[in-house]
Design goal:
111 residues; 4-stranded antiparallel sheet
Length: 111
């Protein structure tokens, strides 16, 4: 199943429409991220991450990223293996890039 994390860039598509183009993907083919999220879900410390749906999509723009980064720090603290820690670091890198690059958003995409 998995919960891929994708950085998208918004590009004008004419007639005031916007097209989103994927820039970078952190795949979760082995459900590592999903497993971590299951461990913290409902604890009350990660309201943004608690909203993630393993079969849906959730987008965060640059305004939400500072809160998302705080919650990812909490997620990193529960990572018990190097694979889990590396996955969280990769998601953090995408979130930081979203902050630095105007016109981007980060999406968690379920199957």
């Amino acid at each position: 199943m998995g919960l891929d994390v994708v950085l998208y860039r918004a590009l004008p598509a004419g007639n005031r429409r916007v097209s989103y183009v994927p820039v970078r993907v952190v795949p979760d083919n082995d459900d590592t991220l999903l497993g971590l999220l299951d461990r913290i879900r409902g604890a009350g410390r990660t309201p943004l991450l608690d909203r993630l749906d393993p079969v849906g999509d959730q987008a965060f723009d640059a305004r939400s990223v500072p809160t998302l980064l705080e919650e990812l720090r909490f997620l990193a603290n529960v990572a018990g293996t190097e694979v889990e820690a590396a996955r969280v670091r990769s998601v953090v890198a995408l979130a930081r890039r979203c902050l630095r690059e105007p016109g981007t958003e980060i999406r968690f995409e379920g199957d």
